[in-house]
TrEMBL record:
This is HTH lysR-type domain-containing protein. Residues 13-70 form the HTH lysR-type domain. Pfam families: HTH_1, LysR_substrate. Belongs to the LysR transcriptional regulatory family. It comes from Inquilinus limosus. It comes from the Bacteria. GO terms for molecular function: DNA-binding transcription factor activity; sequence-specific DNA binding. InterPro entries: LysR-type_TF_proteobact-type (IPR058163), LysR_HTH_N (IPR000847), LysR_subst-bd (IPR005119), WH-like_DNA-bd_sf (IPR036388), WH_DNA-bd_sf (IPR036390).
Length: 309
């Protein structure tokens, strides 16, 4: 006759006890179940007893070497086995979804970064993830992610304090460039001080009229007011290409122009502060698979020799 034990309310809400019972039923042994679960034998025995007390029934017949299910235990096992199988299937599906980027990845960035950086990333993403679609909006103005639908916003320069998560993707090295046409008309600067006599194209600065240049031996303060300031390096590059002046430009954006002979690097031992590139993400989107694969690929791209070459 099966013994009766005191009841505890809602014992089947404890999935750990249900799984423990199922393993005992499958292996017909508390010792074997404990080994599979990675638990002490005493803990499995106590858990099984707790479940029986909660249900107010005896679920197993115990002997020194063997455990067999009672009639009620058999009924319970048949029911919970199906539930646990379905739960395992749901868990497996969620893990696959979590690891497989899908849906639409919405990216907002500037025109310059879109041309220079995204043009390298997007073919790889499209090839690697068949279930991922990508929507890119190129806009120079800063947007508010709190009211925007973008998954990732890529920006350069100093970041404003906000509740957004900022991940640094990399840096853009900045050097001085000029076109052959401009240099034919105005001559090539032989030293950093010569820049005071040239038309300079630069990004906006908080110290107008002078800037710090990192030289081969020391930093130098240069008093040369830029005649044109542009917050988009893509536009600055076009102005310099067409002979409008000498420009401090991201080196990566000028690589093809150098190879084609359309731009010449000047004073190669001198550099401006590198431009930091960040991705801004809302906290609830940072764990999204599509966001994670994009961020990881972007960081690897900035670190790659091809990008820095």
């Amino acid at each position: 006759m099966e013994r009766s034990v005191p009841r505890r309310e809602r014992p089947l809400r404890d999935l750990n006890l249900i799984r423990l019972f199922a393993r005992v039923a499958e292996h017909h042994s508390i010792t074997s179940a404990a080994r599979v679960l990675g638990m002490p034998k005493s803990s499995v025995s106590r858990g099984l007893a707790e479940l029986e007390r909660g249900l107010g029934v005896q679920l197993v017949h115990r002997s020194s070497r063997h455990v067999s299910l009672t009639e009620i235990g058999t009924v319970l096992y048949d029911r919970v086995r199906r539930i646990l199988d379905e739960l395992d299937e749901v868990t497996s599906t969620m893990e696959k979804l979590r690891g497989t980027p899908s849906g639409v990845l919405r990216i907002n960035t500037s025109i310059g970064l879109g041309h220079a950086v995204l043009s390298l990333l997007l073919p790889t993403l499209l090839e690697a993830y068949a279930d991922l679609d990508i929507s890119v909006e190129l806009a120079q103005q800063r947007i508010s992610l709190l009211s925007d639908e973008s998954d990732v916003v890529i920006r350069t320069g100093t970041l404003e304090d906000s509740s957004l998560i900022a991940r640094k993707l990399g840096t853009l090295e900045v050097a001085l460039y000029g076109s052959p046409a401009y240099l034919d008309r105005n001559g090539k600067p032989a030293c950093i001080e010569d820049l005071a006599g040239h038309t300079i194209v630069d990004r906006p600065t908080t110290t107008p009229g002078s800037w710090i240049v990192h030289g081969p031996n020391q930093d130098v303060s240069v008093a040369a007011k830029p005649r044109l300031t542009v917050n988009d390096p893509a536009l600055a590059r076009l102005v310099v290409l067409r002979g409008g002046g000498l420009g401090w430009l991201p080196s990566f954006m000028c690589r093809d122009d150098i190879a084609a002979g359309d731009l010449i690097e000047l004073l190669p031992g001198y550099r401006r502060d590198p431009i930091e590139v960040h991705a801004l993400i809302q906290p609830h989107r940072i764990q999204s698979p599509k966001v994670r694969v994009f961020l990881d690929l972007a960081v690897r791209t900035f670190e790659s020799p091809n990008f820095r070459a």
